[in-house]
Each structure stands twice: as structure tokens, then as C-alpha cells.
Amino acid sequence: MILEIVPLYSYNFYSTLLIIKNIFDLDEKHEVDNVSKTPIGDEEGNIVEADKIKDENFLNTEYNNNERGNNYTKSYNYNYINNKNNFYVDKKNENIYILINCGWDDNFCLDDIKNVIKVCEYVDIVLITNHGLNYIGCLPIIYQEFLKLNRKVPIICHEYTKSYSKYILLSYIKCINNCEFFKTYNENKYINLINDLYQNMLELEYKEYYTYKKNIVYEKEYKKKNCIFILPIYFVNNGDNIGSSGIIIKLFNYKILYSINTNIIDYSFIEKSNIINQSNIFTFIGNFMYTNKNYNKMVEIRNIINIVNRTINNLGCVFFPVDIDSIFLDLLFHINALMELNSQRYAILFLCPYAENLVRLLCASMSYMNSYIKNNFHKNRVNLFKIKNLICLKDYNDFKKYEDGYYILFSFPSNINNDTSKRILSSFLKNKKNVLILTKKNKTDNICSDICNNYYKNKKKENKENFNFSYTKNKKITLKIIF
């Protein structure tokens, strides 16, 4: 099985197509016959043979909170494609197509809208995460296309998103004048279309789930078999704004989490989710504003890389408190290349409770990509998968074995406002060769802002004051800070 991610848009709004394909290309342990016999509620119960379904209410007890231990087996591969031409139309009955969001901005880019219209022929379900025009602007066009094709496709969102987005579309009458697809509409026709759309839209509360089922016909041993693929879908509050939702899709023993929260400063919405807590294996898909054509940013990156280079030549270690954003992506690409040229073996460490999914997180769908990134993303993605020395850490116990070695440590989040990061920092600062690099200003009160204040306060003083925090006292430090 392969999960493919296709960002349909080119600019600063969001629409992502998830394609679950090769559903039955599983190893012997996940053969359909075996999967169909798996008791309801176990992690491999996504596929059920159609002739074995006797109780229509069997889903009521399915996927609630029961998982079978921690003996997970990989059941799908992860892939990113930037191919907006071939969506495997010839195998549309064998694949699952999930469209997440469909919006536009004031540019009304027709090419992007046409990409979304192309998938209407075979998209199975539409999920909306936010009420802004950037997420729902194309929804009337999508719905109109479904009507033309005589297709009843579930459109699902949170109740707040439904209420607010309807208000936005009804008040955004300029869509009629600015969008080619609506120029033939008068105001009444447009309003009637919106009302009809929202009467047919489904609401989903947080912690509730919607179970999508698709009847799939496939050939096995030269015989056609009829199977129903079951896909539970949950909405969780990701804290962006009212009604803003993260989407969790349960796929075999995996949880796929989609969020449009571009800041990724706070992962608490993941920790609070009972669905995620059922498993420590999940894939994160986000929308990162990634561009490396900004001159000022490239100058900053160059300065950071120069400091890292001098530090490792001096056999020191580097500590990067970061947020998962474009700066971090650039840093990882460049530092990985620097490590390949360095004679001393350095480990690249990443401290995050969900670090085992770092590569998947980094290869998430990027809906804002300039031409350079489009042309070079596959090469960069290969480089990510080839990071030989990348080690993911969950806590201080994982870090202890590297404490006396050579490493570049990325710690999430950038405010390092947790005990594990502070404890590592207390050990890290004992070596004068080590360098702490802060890539952004933290305006709120936390250890990073305290470090910055201490640094600037003592910058021109001969007798520098000591910096204190919970895991060390009266410790003099020399900081190199880059914003």
C-alpha cells in the first residue's frame, strides 16, 4: 500500500489530495484473507470482505479505544509526488482519493482551480479544516462539479467551520465577478448554490468519527473479489482558531494526522488526542511555507552555517532550539550537506516526542512552492532520506549516550520550555567549545528570552553576570545568537 500526497495548488492557499493506492499489495501478513478475519477493533481491520458483513452496526464498537499492544507492523509506504497530471484514473476504483480543503486567494488562479476540478471525477471524500476563503473558496465549484457528474461525495467539516465558512461564502459575492467559473451566475443563483451545498454538508464534532467505506473490486488469483475498505476519520482541535481542525485518518496500525497549522509551535493538540495516544506511530502532513529564494534569509542561513562549520572544526557541538518551519528545513538541508564533507563523524540529533516520524514530517505536503523548490524538491527529498547520521530522541535518557560525543542537536520547540531540553542544556553549556544558536526571537517569557536578555545585558560588560536556570546555578556562559 502507498500513501501519496499531491499539493494541488502552487501559491499561498491550501488544497491537498491524498491517494491511498495499491491497497492489496501487502505482504503475507497483511493478505486480504487474513485482514478480513481480523477481529473488529484490531489495527489491521481496515479491509473486510463484502460477503462477510452481516451486522450493519458493527462499526459502533469499532476503532473506539482498543489497540493490540505495541507490536506494530509496517503496512504502507509514504510518498510525495508533485504530479498534477496523472491521478491513476484507470485505477480509480481500486484507490481511495481524499481531498483536503479547496480554496483560493484574491488572485483567483485558474490553473490551480482546474487542478481541483480534475479530481472531482474520482475524489471519494472532501474534508474541510478551516473556514477561511483560502480553504473553502473553491467549494461551490467542487459541489457544482459533483452535481454535473451526478456524484454524491461526502463533504465533512466541524460545525463551527460549517457555520463560519457559509457566512464567508455568502458575503464574498465578488467571487461572481472575479472568478471565471461564476461569471454566468447572478447573485440569486450563487446564493441558492451555497445554500444547497451547506444543506448537504456533514458536521463532525471533535473526538467523534466518520467511517468512510468504499467498495473495491480487485483481482486475486485470477478471480475478482469484492471488498469494503473501511477508513475511520476523526477531527481534533489544533488550536489555530475557532473550528480549526486537525484530521486523523486511521490506516491499519498507523494514524495519519493532517494539520494546516503552519506555525507548528505547539504540539499539545496531538498530545490531547485520544486517537493519537492509541499508537506512537503516525504520519504528520502539514503545509509548510517553504522558499529559499529570499535573499535576506539565505544570508542568515549562510551565517549560521559558517558558525556551525567553525564550531565543528573546533570539535564543539551545536544546540539548535527550533520550530518546524522553513528555516529548520533549510538548516537541515545545508547541515546535512556540511556533515557529508566533514572528516569528523557528527550525529544529527532531533529531540521531539514524535521524532520517529521526523522524515515523514519534513516530507509533508508543501502547498507554497516556488519554481526552484518545484524543480529540486525530489532531489532534496532524496537527500533527507539519505541522512545517515540522523538520530531521533524522545527524552534525556536517549540523549545520554551521545552526551560526550560530537553532535548537532535540534530541539523542538524553539522556546525549549521543557525539562528535558533544560537538562540537556545544563550539560551542553559545560563545554566552552559548544555553541547555542537561536534562530528566532521569543517574545514570551521563557528560557530562550531570558538567555537573550542576559546576553544583550552583558554584551559590553567586562564582568559578565552569571545566568541561572533550573538545572544549573551560577554558570557562566558565552552565547552566540543569530536571529
Automatic annotation (TrEMBL):
Subcellular location: Nucleus
A GO molecular-function descriptor: RNA binding
A single GO cellular-component term on record: mRNA cleavage and polyadenylation specificity factor complex
UniProt record, GO biological process: mRNA 3'-end processing by stem-loop binding and cleavage
Keyword Mitochondrion part of the UniProt annotation: no
Keywords: mRNA processing, Nucleus, RNA-binding
Pfam families according to UniProt: Lactamase_B_6 (PF16661)
InterPro entries: Beta_Casp (IPR022712), CPSF2 (IPR027075), Metallo-B-lactamas (IPR001279), RibonucZ/Hydroxyglut_hydro (IPR036866)
Domain annotation Beta-Casp: ranges: 328-451
Family, per entry: Belongs to the metallo-beta-lactamase superfamily. RNA-metabolizing metallo-beta-lactamase-like family. CPSF2/YSH1 subfamily.
Protein name: Cleavage and polyadenylation specificity factor subunit 2
Organism: Plasmodium vinckei vinckei
Lineage of producing organism: Eukaryota, Sar, Alveolata, Apicomplexa, Aconoidasida
